[in-house]
Structures are given as structure tokens and as C-alpha cells.
Design brief:
By secondary structure, the chain is an alpha+beta fold. It is built from 10 helices and 10 strands. α4 runs antiparallel to α6 (141-162). The longest helix has 22 residues, at 141-162.
């Protein structure tokens, strides 16, 4: 556990060098609008409309460490706590949900970038972007095709952001080999909110996407891959070793995956 962030945070505003470094970190990772200073924390928000503010501060050591990040967005706070639990510190400032401390700026910048990409992917920001772009379209067949193409683009970017550009099963990071896999397919979703919900999707390598979309594989509530034995020996030899990896899921994923398992007859 890192030290309490109430110690020495005024260095953020008292030392120009550290303040400039924090401002540069925020700007370079999506939070380009300064939004004031309070109790040693520098506050920032996105200039792209991405929801949630962040606050940054430096620590009491001569090199400015430890470096602190506080997050306002509730969904980002939950996900970062899962990924960065050993860096968690309390209490966060003001309305912020959670705060983290890091030994060096590199770790701070990595977490700051992750916070931005999560905020950009989580409900309901992709939906808002989609609705804004298709607001002038009607309901003809051609316009429905355009809407789906636009929506699939926003959905793919959201999944790339949420899964950090990595297939959770195979670890593949080559973007051309990754697919935005709907759990409940676009045509069967009950609303645009469900269609654009990052928790209704998985970022899968092409062979896993094809198998998942065809109902030849699915995932249980623990993130274990389920593979139908009717697959050919060659397919099983490819998929089964990779299926040993658990993928991180939350309850929203689990609700959608229950539909997928039932629809494709997994027991």
C-alpha cells in the first residue's frame, strides 16, 4: 500500500517543475483541459467530451514521487481498482471516487492513459457519439445499413479501448487480427444502447471471433472458454490450448453471455 495522498500534495502547485510535468502528462493522455487546483491536486478534463475528470499531484520526495492520480468516473474507478489494486490509496479528493499512488511518472502516465481509454469506452459515451452522428438519418433500408456501419465503428473503438487493444484469450495485439465480437448480435439487440454497450462485446482474435459468432465456443461466468467437442481435431488443437486462459468479466458481461450460451445450446 502506498502512502496516504494527503501527505505533501501541495507540491503540485508549489513547485513549477512538477506542475509542468503533471500538466504535460494530462495533455499527452487525453485530459487536455485544466480545470483548477484544490488542496494540492491539479484537476483536468477531456476536450473531446469524454466523461469524468482526473486529478494529479506529486509527492514529498525530491524527485516528486510518489505521483498521484484520482479518478471521478465511477466505471473507470472500478476497472482501475481491479487492474491497479496494489497502487490504491485513500482518501481521494472531493467528488473523486478513488486515488492511486505510483513510484514513478512512467507508471502514472500508463494509468492516466488507461483511465482515458476506459472513460471513452464505457457506457454511455459510445452511444452518445453514435446518436449524434446518425441523428439526421431515417429508417429506410439504406439508412439502416449506414447506421449499422457507423455503430459498428464506434463499437469496435470502444472494445479496443476497453480491452487495451488485446485479445483476452490469445493475447494477440495486432489490430488487423482483432474483431469486435458482439455477444448478443446487432440484429437481436433490444436497443441501440445494448448495441453500443462495451459489455455486450469481446475483442477476439479472428479465429476466436469466427468460432464465437458461429456458436462453436462461448464463455462461462468465470471467464473460462467453452468449446464444443464437435469441432474438428485441427480446430480443437488450435483452440483448446488457448482456452486455458481465463478472461476478466464483470456482471454486465455475464448477463449477455448467459444469452449466448442458451442461444447456442451450451450446457
Amino acid at each position: 500500500m502506498m502512502p496516504n495522498p494527503s501527505l505533501g500534495l501541495r507540491r503540485a502547485s508549489a513547485h513549477p517543475i512538477f506542475r509542468v510535468e503533471l500538466e504535460q502528462a494530462a495533455f499527452n493522455h487525453g485530459f487536455r483541459k485544466a480545470n483548477g487546483i484544490a488542496d494540492g491536486w491539479l484537476w483536468f478534463k477531456s476536450d473531446e467530451g469524454v466523461p469524468g475528470e482526473v486529478a494529479l499531484a506529486s509527492g514529498i520526495n525530491e524527485d516528486g514521487s510518489p505521483w498521484f492520480l484520482a479518478v471521478e468516473h465511477a466505471g473507470v474507478a472500478v476497472k482501475l481498482a481491479e487492474e491497479l489494486g496494489d497502487a490504491l490509496v485513500t482518501p481521494p479528493p472531493a467528488q473523486f471516487k478513488i486515488a492511486f499512488a505510483f513510484a514513478d511518472q512512467a507508471a502514472l502516465r500508463k494509468a492516466l492513459s488507461r483511465a482515458f481509454h476506459l472513460a471513452r469506452s464505457l457506457p454511455t459515451f459510445p452511444l452518445a457519439q453514435y446518436e449524434s452522428e446518425v441523428a439526421g438519418l431515417g429508417d429506410t433500408e439504406v439508412e439502416r445499413i449506414v447506421k449499422e456501419r457507423v455503430g459498428q465503428g464506434y463499437f469496435r473503438r470502444a472494445l479496443l479501448d476497453f480491452w487495451d487493444g488485446r485479445c483476452p484469450v490469445t493475447g494477440i495485439t495486432d489490430e488487423p487480427l482483432l474483431r469486435a465480437s458482439h455477444i448478443v448480435p446487432w440484429a437481436k439487440c433490444r436497443s441501440d444502447e445494448e448495441r453500443l454497450d462495451v459489455f455486450n462485446g469481446l475483442l477476439l482474435a479472428v479465429h476466436w471471433d469466427a468460432a464465437f459468432d458461429s456458436g462453436l465456443v462461448s464463455f462461462d461466468d468465470e471467464g473460462r472458454a467453452l468449446v464444443k467437442p464437435a469441432l474438428s481435431d485441427a480446430a480443437l488443437q488450435l483452440l483448446v490450448p488457448e482456452a486455458a486462459h481465463l478472461i476478466p468479466l464483470n456482471d454486465a458481461h455475464r448477463r449477455q453471455l448467459s444469452w449466448h450460451r442458451e442461444h447456442f445450446g451450451f450446457r
